[in-house]
């Protein structure tokens, strides 16, 4: 069931989203070779909890052990933070964070470079971010979920990359995952119609190679089927009469 939000509820989500945005900014500035993914996870949890009333939304969610899903290189999503996983120069690392604040959930992600990365990897990051921006621009009343997916897919495939199809964006707000699903591919004017008050997580997951995925034996980490690299960017967005409102900005 789709749960539309009032302006007051959207404003409350934006408060939590601001904490989330600042969490990602803190992690982005901290990422460097030699850090472990657990270092980043602990840093994020401490930062989130330093804001009264804010908690890491992913901690314990469905049994997930960390506060941040941290996925490196060919890992697409849901990587488990570990003191045994050390970042090295040239890695790319996806940081997927959720915050619960004032009873509302927000969700965002960013893939960042560890030191200097290759031109191809930088292009993968740039295209994935551009596809997110295109998806957000399509999140207006009167459009459909398919318009968002089509916008993302067009940017990605034009660049020669592929969209992950087994994983999708989603509604968010009262719960961490709500209806509707928001795929990163689709056809215009298909799927759920977008109306003011809808709050959704738009999250392109883009592979340098094939779109296929597989899940590691830990039953969490999803990786590319061909071992090529993947990037992930995400914002929580409110559909409003004035256009899309990004709720997970740092400012």
Automatic annotation (TrEMBL):
InterPro entries according to UniProt: Creatinase/aminopeptidase-like, Pept_M24, Pept_M24_MAP, Pept_M24A_MAP1
Catalytic function, reaction form: Release of N-terminal amino acids, preferentially methionine, from peptides and arylamides
Enzyme class of the recorded protein, top EC level: hydrolase
Residues noted as binding substrate in the record, renumbered to the chain: 78, 177
Entry cofactors: Co(2+); Zn(2+); Mn(2+); Fe(2+)
Record EC number: 3.4.11.18
Peptidase M24 domain: residues covered: 12-241
Cofactor binding, note field: Binds 2 divalent metal cations per subunit. Has a high-affinity and a low affinity metal-binding site. The true nature of the physiological cofactor is under debate. The enzyme is active with cobalt, zinc, manganese or divalent iron ions. Most likely, methionine aminopeptidases function as mononuclear Fe(2+)-metalloproteases under physiological conditions, and the catalytically relevant metal-binding site has been assigned to the histidine-containing high-affinity site.
GO cellular component: cytosol
Keywords: Aminopeptidase, Hydrolase, Metal-binding, Protease
Keyword Cytoplasm attributed: no
Pfam families: Peptidase_M24
Binding site for a divalent metal cation 1: 96, 107, 234
GO aspect biological process, one term: proteolysis
Keyword check for DNA-binding: no
Entry's Gene Ontology molecular function annotations: initiator methionyl aminopeptidase activity; metal ion binding; metalloaminopeptidase activity
Gene3D superfamilies for this protein: Creatinase/methionine aminopeptidase superfamily (3.90.230.10)
Signal peptide: none
CDD domains named in the record: MetAP1
Annotated a divalent metal cation 2 binding sites: 107, 170, 203, 234
Assembly description: Monomer.
Family, per entry: Belongs to the peptidase M24A family. Methionine aminopeptidase type 1 subfamily.
Its biological purpose: Removes the N-terminal methionine from nascent proteins. The N-terminal methionine is often cleaved when the second residue in the primary sequence is small and uncharged (Met-Ala-, Cys, Gly, Pro, Ser, Thr, or Val). Requires deformylation of the N(alpha)-formylated initiator methionine before it can be hydrolyzed.
Matching NCBIfam families: met_pdase_I
Entry protein name: Methionine aminopeptidase
């Amino acid at each position: 069931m789709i749960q539309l939000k009032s302006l007051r509820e959207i404003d409350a989500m934006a408060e939590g989203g601001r904490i989330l945005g600042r969490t990602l900014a803190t992690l982005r500035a901290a990422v460097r070779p030699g850090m472990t993914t657990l270092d980043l996870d602990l840093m994020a949890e401490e930062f989130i909890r330093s804001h009264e009333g804010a908690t890491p939304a992913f901690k314990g969610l469905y049994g997930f052990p960390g506060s941040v899903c941290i996925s490196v290189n060919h890992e697409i999503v849901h990587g488990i933070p570990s003191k045994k996983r050390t970042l090295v120069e040239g890695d790319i690392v996806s940081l997927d964070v959720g915050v619960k604040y004032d009873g509302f959930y927000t969700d965002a992600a960013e893939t960042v470079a560890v030191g200097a990365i290759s031109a191809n990897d930088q292009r993968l990051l740039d295209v994935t971010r551009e596809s997110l921006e295109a998806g957000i621009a399509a999140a207006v009343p009167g459009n459909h979920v398919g318009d968002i997916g089509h916008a993302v897919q067009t940017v990605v495939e034009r660049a020669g990359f592929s969209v992950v199809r087994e994983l999708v964006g989603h509604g968010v707000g009262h719960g961490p995952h709500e209806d509707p699903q928001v795929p990163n591919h689709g056809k215009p004017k298909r799927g759920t119609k977008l109306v003011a008050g809808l709050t959704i997580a738009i999250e392109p997951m883009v592979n340098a190679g094939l779109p296929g995925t597989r899940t590691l034996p830990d039953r969490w980490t999803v990786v590319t089927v061909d071992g090529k690299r993947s990037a992930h960017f995400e914002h929580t967005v409110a559909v409003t009469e004035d256009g899309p409102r990004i709720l997970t900005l740092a400012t």
